[in-house]
Amino acid sequence: MSARNGSQPPNVISAGLELFADAASEQGAQVRRIDWRPPMPSSEQALARVMADRRRVQANAEALARITSTAALLVDVLPAGPTLGLGTTDFLHAGPPIGWDRASGPLRGALLGAAAFEGIVDEPEQAIELFASRAGYSLDPCHHHSAVGPMAGVISASMWLFVVEDPSTGRRTYCSLNEGLGKVLRYGAYSPDVLSRLRWMSDVLGPLLQQAVRARGPIDLKAILAQMLQMGDEAHNRNRAGTLMWLREVLPALIDSAAPSSDVAEVVRFVSGNDHFFLNLAMPACKLTLDSARDIPGSTVVVAMARNGTDFGIQVAGTGQQWFTGPAQLVDGLFLGDYGPEDANPDIGDSAITETAGLGGFAMAAAPAIVRFVGGEVGDAINASRRMYEITVGEHPMYSIPVLGFRGTPTGIDVTKVVRTQILPQINTGMAGKQAGVGQVGAGLVTPPAEIFVQALTALAERAAPLL
Amino acid sequence: MSARNGSQPPNVISAGLELFADAASEQGAQVRRIDWRPPMPSSEQALARVMADRRRVQANAEALARITSTAALLVDVLPAGPTLGLGTTDFLHAGPPIGWDRASGPLRGALLGAAAFEGIVDEPEQAIELFASRAGYSLDPCHHHSAVGPMAGVISASMWLFVVEDPSTGRRTYCSLNEGLGKVLRYGAYSPDVLSRLRWMSDVLGPLLQQAVRARGPIDLKAILAQMLQMGDEAHNRNRAGTLMWLREVLPALIDSAAPSSDVAEVVRFVSGNDHFFLNLAMPACKLTLDSARDIPGSTVVVAMARNGTDFGIQVAGTGQQWFTGPAQLVDGLFLGDYGPEDANPDIGDSAITETAGLGGFAMAAAPAIVRFVGGEVGDAINASRRMYEITVGEHPMYSIPVLGFRGTPTGIDVTKVVRTQILPQINTGMAGKQAGVGQVGAGLVTPPAEIFVQALTALAERAAPLL
C-alpha cells in the first residue's frame, strides 16, 4: 500500500491476495491486482538455493542456445536390430524405466504384439508368460538408446527407424516409422492386421524410404517444422502439412527408384494418407536438439518429458541421466466412437518431447484447428501457448507463431519457473485404451504431475554451486 | 438523445457524428458512439429503391444457398483449343472486355508471348503489329467462355486447362495450369525460358495430369479448400497446403501411369515446387459456384470481380452479363528485389474470383502468415476478414476460420451493403511489372474502385420490382 496524506483514497497493489484486495476495494481504495501464487508446497528452501546458484542464468542461456541452434537432418532409414544393437528378445519402450509388473495395458499390448512380430511366439498372448517371468528378455527406455517412440513406444529388432543427425557433432537420434491411427501397435493393439501392417512396413516401406532418403540426401527437419507452424500444425497431434512437405522432399527420389511402381504407389498412399506420419520425424528431431543441452551444470532446463503409461518422468540439463517421476495423469479430451473416460489409459508416450522442445501443446496457438481433435475452444489453445512463456527460458528463433505476431515458440522449460508459478507444461496427446489390444480411444490435453518438478528442484539444490 | 428530467446527464447515441459526439461528451453527456458513415455519394435514391425491392432478401438468400451448395469437382485436364473452340489467333484475357489499345503492359506482354507460343510469329515482339492492327485475331474475356485466368489471364489454343464440373447440372468451368512465380507469362514475361516452360506444360504436364485425373476420378476441390483454411491457406496468395493436398490425390495415379518415371518425377517436382499451383484449381471452383447465382432477379450479390490491368469490373446476380467497370487501383504491398511502386502495374487478373466466393482477402484471418507475402500485420489480416462480414449476405457452411472460433467465411458480397457502409471488398494479389516482359514485381493488398458499386446499384434500381 503506497504512502498517503490527507483524504486521497489509498493505492493498493495486491499480489495474489484476493480477499484483501476485495476488502480494500470495498473501502474505496484503488486496487491493482497482480496474479501471483505461492510456489509449490515444500519447495521454498530448494527454490532459494537453486535461484542463488550463480551458474544458473548462464547455464540456462547456454541450454537455450544449444537447443535452438542444433541442426536436425534426416540422413537415413535403418533396421533397428543392427542400428541399436537389439536382439530378437530386446525391447525398448516409451517413458522412464518400468517393468512388466507395473506396465500399463497399452504398453503390455504393444510388447505382446512385438514379441509375435519378432517370431518369439506365434500368438501375441503366448508372450505373457515370457514377460511375466522377468527373464529371457530385456526391456529398456527408448531414451536410454538415443531413441524415442510415440505412445507405448515399443521398438523391436525387426522394425525400421528414422535416423536423424546433427552434422556438427555426428550425434544421431532414432524413431520408429508411424503406423497411422486407430488399431495400431503403439496404442496397444496387436491383432493380425496390426502385425501384417508392421511386416509390410519392414519389408517394403522401410527399405524404399531408405533408398529414397539416401538418393535424396539429408533433409532439414527443422526447416519443415518451421514451415508447419505457418500451416496450422504444432507437430504433436497435427502433422498434416509436415507429412505432405516431407513427402514432397522424398517423392522425386521415390519415383526415380528402381522399385516396382506398385510398391512406390503403395508407399505414397500410406504416407500421404496418414496425417500423423511426420510425428515420428518431429520427435527424434526434438530429442536431438534437446540432448545437446544435457549435462550443463547448474541448468534448470528440462531436456526430456516422457511417459510409460504408468509414470511420467522428466530429465533436467543440470542433473544428468536421473529421472524424476510421478503418476501419469488422465487425459481430458475427445473420445472416438463409443469410448469414454473409463476406457482411457493415463498419459503415455515419448511424444511429449515435442512440448519439451517448445512445440506441441506449447505451439497450439499456431494450430487452432487442433481443438477439433483434442477438445476445448480456440481461445484456450491460444492462451495455452501464451501461458507457456511464463515457464520457459526463451523463444525459439526459427519456430514462430503467426497469430502471436510471429513470436518465437516458448522454449526451454525451466524447473524453477514451473515451481514458482505452479503453471504446469501443457501437453496435447493421443489416448490409448487402458486394456491391452484395444488401440486408440481418443485425444486430449494433459499435464505432468506437479511433484516431479519439486523432486527435480531438490536434486538441483543438492548439486548447486557453493554460495560465495 | 434520450428524454430527460432534472439534473441527470443526458444519454447520447452518436451514429458517425464525431464532432457532435465530442461536443456532447465535453458537456458531461454519456456518449455511445456507433461507427456509421453515410452511403456513397449520389447513391441514396438508388439505394432506397433497391432496398425496397421486395424480391431482394429472398433473392440474396437464394444466391447464397446456390453459391455455398454447388459442388466443384475436377473431372479432366484438356487442351484449350478444342475445349473452348479457340483457333490459333483467338486469345482470352483476364478481367472485363478490353482492346489492345487500352491494354496494360503485362496483358500486352502475355499476348505477345502467347502469339509466339502459338507459332503466329517467331519472336514475341513481332506480334505487336498484328495486335495493333485490330484485325486477324480475336480477344475476349475468359469470363465470357466459362473460364478464369490469374493475372494477365491469357489463354490460347495450345495451352491446357483444368476442367471443373458441377455434377448436378453438368456445368463446367476452366482455368489454365499455373506456371509458378517470377518471370512467367501471366505476369507479362515472354522470354525464351517462359515459352519453353509453356511448351513443356503442354507437351508433358497437361497430358500426364489428364491421365492421372482420369484414372483417379473426380476430385472434390471444395473439400480441399475447406481443409486449406485449417492449414494457413486462404486460396488466393497462399495455396501451399492446397497444392500438396491436391498432389496427394493424383499421386498414386501419376505413379501408376505408363509414363516414363523421369516425366512423372519432373511433373511431381514442378507441381510440388510451386506453392501457387492450386490457385488455378481454386479459381475455376470459385467461378463454378458463383456462376450458379447468375441471373437471379432482384439479387444484389456480386458474382464476379475481375481486372484486366486497366479496368476493374464486377458482375451482379440481378443484372445479367453486364459489367460495371472503373479504373484498376494500385496495389499496396511488398516488392521483390529492387522493384518499387513505380514498377508496378495496377491490379490485374481474374483471381479476385476467390474473394468473390469468400476466400482470398476475405479469409485472411485463416492465413496469418500471408502478411509476410502481402505486407501488413497479423492483426490487419484478422480484421480484414472481420470487416468483410459487414458487406456479405452470409457465412459459408463448409469454409471456416479457426481463429474466429470456426466462423464460416464471409460469403456473397452485397452491393447494397458495400454502398451503405463504404467498406470495399478486400483483395490480396500479386503485382505485375507495368512494362511488358518484366514479370512479377511484388504482392499486396488492393480494393476495387468504389464507383462501380454505385453503377451496379443504379442498374439494380432500374430493374427493381414495381413498388406495391
Structural write-up:
2 copies of one chain form a homodimer. Chain A is built from 16 helices and 18 strands. With 468 residues, chain A is an alpha+beta fold. The first copy, chain A, folds into 3 domains: 36 residues, no CATH class; 193 residues, v583 domain like (v583 fold, Alpha-Beta Complex), CATH 3.90.1700; 213 residues, Alpha-Beta Complex (Enterococcus faecalis V583 fold). In chain A, β7 and β8 form a beta hairpin. In chain A, α8 crosses α9. The longest helix of chain A has 25 residues. The radius of gyration of chain A is 23 Å and the shape is globular. Chains A and B meet through α9, α10 and α14 of A and α9, α10 and α14 of B.
Share of residues in helices of chain A = 25-40%
Strand order of the main beta sheet of chain A, please? 6-8-7-3-9
Assembly annotation: homodimer
Strand content of chain A: 15-25%
Rg of chain A: 23 Å
Mean pLDDT of chain A: 94
Quickly give the CATH architecture of the largest domain in chain A: Alpha-Beta Complex
Largest sheet of chain A at a glance? 5 strands, mixed
Annotated CATH topology of the largest domain in chain A: Enterococcus faecalis V583 fold
Tally of DSSP helical segments of chain A = 16
Query: Any idea how many domains of chain A?
Result: 3
Tell me the total number of β-strands of chain A: 18
User: Which stretches of chain A are poorly predicted, pLDDT < 50 over at least 5 residues?
Assistant: none
What coarse outline of chain A follows from CA principal-axis ratios?
globular
| SSE-based structural type of chain A | alpha+beta
State the fourth-level CATH superfamily of the largest domain in chain A.
Enterococcus faecalis V583 domain
Amino-to-carboxy terminus distance of chain A:
35 Å
